Amino acid sequence: MAGSVAPVAGPAVPSYVRTPAAAFLSSLGVDRSLVRHDIAGSLAHVEALGAAGLLSPEQVRTLLGGLRAVAREVADGTFPWREELEDVHTNVERRLTELVGPLGGMLQAGRSRNDQVAVDERLYLRAAVAELAAALLALESAILAAAEAEQGSPMPGYTHLQRAQPVTVGHHLLAHFWRFDRDLDRLFATAERSDASPLGAGALAGSTLPLDPERTAHRLGFARAFDNSLDAVSDRDPFAELLFDLALLAVHASGLGEEIVLFATKEFGFLARTASLGSGSSLMPQKRNPDVAELVRAGAGRAIGDLVALLTTLKGLPLAYDRDLQEDKRPVLDAVASVSATVGALSALVPALRFDRERLRSASADPELYAADLAEALAARGVPFREAHETVRATFLASPAGATSGRLEAIAPGGATVVLSTEPEAALARRAVPGGPGPRALEAQLARARARRDARRTSLSSLVRKVEQIEELVNEGTT
């Protein structure tokens, strides 16, 4: 039982971490955050040693109890971290040996720190993706709610940051929903591709002991074990993919942040400058700055930098494990923390956005937004589109105001006059193409978005179950 272990005299620093360069080589400042995953991997490994007949049932119970005692110490903040022990793996092993005696030395039988850190990282990735996915789903729900509330609010759509054609605020917000949904899809795909356990690959060539990597893989909730031991200990594709996912997510968040910054200016005036956007000026009493959106925008640079840092570290490394890989965790931990904060900030900000519907509708009455509609109306009457394009262009050159009393008109070849309403609602009703901003199309798009979000929740539930499996392994037999 975990409560039956008793402390013994602490061991000296092991020879494999004893060096004048210890301070430079130490990774404890970073990899101690993997400690719970490290303990979970060790628990599964001890069970595998017992299944292989290398440990007696009593020895297995003793080691499992000792490891769970270590987990409790970590959880309550009493674990005696020792900087001179270099990394999380050695700290856990040394503390286990202090608790259970020389039997703790069996923990590394058939295992290396190389496959150990690789499995720790994949367990961490799984948990990180689950947390990020939950945060993204909250953001998706916030965007969906805002899009539903503003689905009938006309606004100008932009290309090249110039007014182009009419859309609605709801349609515009849904464009961000689909961006973030692709980010969510990539995160789930990354978790699925990393769903193979490296444990059992040893330093690079497996072990002569009769261990079963499939057994430990399934105990840790992995779908399968590694295919190649050299690849297993050197593969950092999951971390590289995760960083790409996060960098692109941050880029998408930055785009939304930029629009919030622009729309909150007096020049646009589409958003009220509420306290939720950020702080005021220390000098100018009238100011309300979009600080949250600006920091969201800036965060993309940090995530992109983390991706570049890891890819540069991995470039040109020979098989199998190299100490360079010690530097793989810092950028990942940083990106996960910073992007999680960004998503959380947006989830709080989006519901607080207040759109100025009157200002948006006034901007949507700009006659230039309907020039393409008029050209298409001519094309619908048999005028070649390029000819219709030139006819409408000439109309706007002759009369820059372009419209009177909510209508546009042009003379078709043969002398017929084509009249087009420039009322935003009428223009939107003409846009019935699936995926467009027309009322029926937008309702259908909202329904698809709700269904997609609900499906993602199901995917998240499956991933969370795997994360919970690790917690159950660590807490098994404790109260």
- List the total number of helices: 17
Provide the domain count: 3
Tell me which CATH architecture of the largest domain applies here: Up-down Bundle
Strand fraction equals: 5-15%
Alpha-beta content class:
mainly alpha
CATH topology of the largest domain: Fumarase C, Chain A, domain 2
| CATH class type of the largest domain | Mainly Alpha
Helix content: 55-70%
Q: What global shape is seen?
A: elongated
Question: Which features characterize this protein?
Answer:
Fumarase C, Chain A, domain 2; Fumarase C, Chain B, domain 1; Ribonucleotide Reductase Protein R1, domain 1; disordered N terminus; elongated; mainly alpha; two-stranded parallel sheet; single chain; 479 residues; two-stranded antiparallel ribbon
Please provide a written account of the structure:
It is built from 17 helices and 6 strands. It has a two-stranded antiparallel sheet. The chain has a two-stranded parallel ribbon with strand order 3-4. A two-stranded antiparallel sheet has the order 5-6. It is mainly alpha-helical. Helix 6 runs parallel beside helix 12, helix 6 (113-149) packs antiparallel against helix 17 and helix 7 runs antiparallel to helix 10 (237-263). The termini are close together. The protein has helices at residues 22-25, 28-31, 35-51, 57-76, 88-100, 113-149, 169-193, 213-219, 229-234, 237-263, 291-314, 329-349, 357-364, 371-380, 385-398, 424-429, 439-475; strands at residues 154-159, 162-168, 196-197, 224-225, 407-411, 417-421. The chain folds into 3 domains: 2-109, Fumarase C, Chain B, domain 1, CATH 1.10.275; 114-356 and 455-475, Fumarase/aspartase (Central domain) (Fumarase C, Chain A, domain 2, Up-down Bundle), CATH 1.20.200; 366-422, Ribonucleotide Reductase Protein R1, domain 1 (Orthogonal Bundle).
